[in-house]
Design a protein that fits this description.
Length: 325
């Protein structure tokens, strides 16, 4: 796919994102607040298996167990303003509008890699048991949930690993310097500051990267943006153990089931490429599991319900609202 077509596809994705938010803003907040509980009651109508999965996800995103008080300096919904990012603001506002305007909350936008000292809405957090104060919402969806329809079967793809990105972080720099000239790799740093370096490469669209059997996912400031579209494709995801997680629940991914885990220094990369080139049935099984995992994030109605439930649990635990959770 040419860069021009790739830009057009991505622009259509962005247009759809902002159009959805524009339509949602036409709905009166009072109407949304009145219908919040009826939306929440959808959980009661689910069969046992679906209800278990939904409740598990709610409690994964929001691990708060004890009641707490929100400090006086917390933001009230009525005072919530756009900062630098329209994407974060619109995603969060679309959920906040379902709740009374005097509710208070803490939030942090951007790539969050430390657990806040108080319960706070975030896009990302460290993977681990002690991350309760970091309450995940589905934020910056326009960037993190971009996917293409992969029509190329695994067997028709080239038996190499591919990666493109900007190497600002040490882990990316170490990888690209060590593997840019490996015969089984087509990897490179696309940032202009890398021009003149032997590891600099030109931009490669998502569709062009999906001509390869193996696509590498490397964390940046927090999670790897490309992980979602890799796992939604017919290519096999290679990555090291995730250190950070978002709404995609990277910490819940199972090595050998959803992705191929690599050592932190990538010393087993060539071995894994050669193994899964020869054992394509195993590769296809992992790809199928990854595709199934991604499906749960495509139901817009359920995703809205989950965001509402996560936020309602926050307001319930902070003694600002009654209701379930």
């Amino acid at each position: 796919m040419s860069a021009f077509i790739a830009r057009g596809h991505k622009n259509a994705h962005k247009l759809n994102f902002y159009s959805r938010h524009a339509f949602q803003r036409l709905l009166p907040a009072a109407w949304l607040r009145a219908h919040r509980e009826s939306i929440m009651r959808q959980i009661d109508a689910m069969d046992e298996k679906e209800r278990f999965q939904v409740l598990w996800r709610i409690n994964y995103y929001n691990k708060l167990e004890s009641s707490f008080s929100v400090s006086d300096d917390a933001t009230r919904i009525r005072d919530f303003k756009r900062g630098k990012s329209w994407a974060y603001y619109l995603d969060m506002l679309s959920i906040l509008r379902f709740f009374p305007r005097d509710m208070r909350f803490h939030y942090q936008f951007g790539d969050i890699t430390r657990v806040p000292s108080v319960p706070t809405f975030v896009k990302s957090r460290p993977v681990g048991e002690e991350n309760h104060n970091a309450v995940l919402l589905k934020l910056n969806r326009v960037r993190h949930y971009y996917m293409v329809n992969d029509r190329v079967p695994f067997g028709a793809k080239e038996s190499k690993v591919v990666w493109r990105g900007a190497c600002h972080q040490p882990q990316r720099q170490r990888f690209i310097e060590g593997f840019h000239d490996h015969p089984l790799c087509n990897v490179g740093d696309v940032h202009r500051k890398a021009q003149g370096k032997p590891w600099h490469r030109e931009f490669m669209s998502v569709a062009d990267q999906l001509q390869y059997k193996f696509v590498l996912s490397i964390e940046g400031n927090d999670v790897a943006t490309n992980l979602k579209w890799i796992m939604a494709s017919n290519s096999l995801c290679f990555m090291t153990k995730p250190r950070y997680e978002t709404w995609f629940m990277e910490g819940a991914l199972v090595p050998g089931h959803h992705f191929v885990e690599l050592k932190s220094d990538y010393s087993d990369l060539e071995e894994k490429i050669r193994y899964y080139t020869k054992h394509d049935a195993e590769a296809k099984a992992i790809i199928a599991n990854a595709n199934d995992y991604v499906e749960q994030f495509k139901d817009e109605g359920k995703e809205r319900l989950l965001n509402l439930a996560v936020m309602q649990k926050f307001f319930k635990k902070s003694n600002q609202i009654d209701g379930v959770f």
